[in-house]
Task: structure prediction
Amino acid sequence: MNRRPRRIPAILAGFAALALALSGCSSDDSLANQYREGNSKGYIAGDGSVTEIPADERGEPVEFDGTLEDGSTITSADYAGEVLVVNFWYASCAPCRAEAPDLKAISEQFADNGASFLGVNVRDQAASAIAFNEAYEISYPSVMDVDDGGMQLAFSGNIPPNAVPTTLVLDTSGRVAARILGQVNSPGILKTLISDAIAEDG
Result:
């Protein structure tokens, strides 16, 4: 009796190849996995990983402008010549609330010592941002970026802030020198990144 050729091994091999190709794109992409989960936590959490960029490998200075929660405007030129820490956040983000006391303390430590802080609120209206800052006694301003995403776009060509919160350290030339992806879990690490960026100019 003639039997039809068995094609199961070939089919299985095809599936295996497809699975391998897909895993190459996403197996280590924890942010993508969180997005695909479709849960309702309202943010994609980073893992707190730190990326530092050597001075000779940094891109062009980041140029930006935006409107603060009080309605005034701000630009990258306002921070020319100093280290700038940019924190992407919004009020109902749990890790944003958790890191707020540390950011407040560190911003105050460096306020007169070579570094400024700037928030970028990616979701709220001004009233919510103001209430958050009052609750956590945060004195540095935040750009309200929910309407046009201009700040997120300005930084996307360098190290994309693809999780909230994300904290970037810009050197005195306005280039991205370091990133903390997710909650600032170790204040000491952020302090070191800022101090290193300040020291470069010295």
Q: What stands out?
A: Residues 1-44 have pLDDT under 50 and may be disordered. Strands lie at 49-52, 65-67, 73-75, 83-89, 115-121, 142-144, 166-170, 176-181. The chain has two domains: 8-37, 49-200. The radius of gyration is 21 Å.
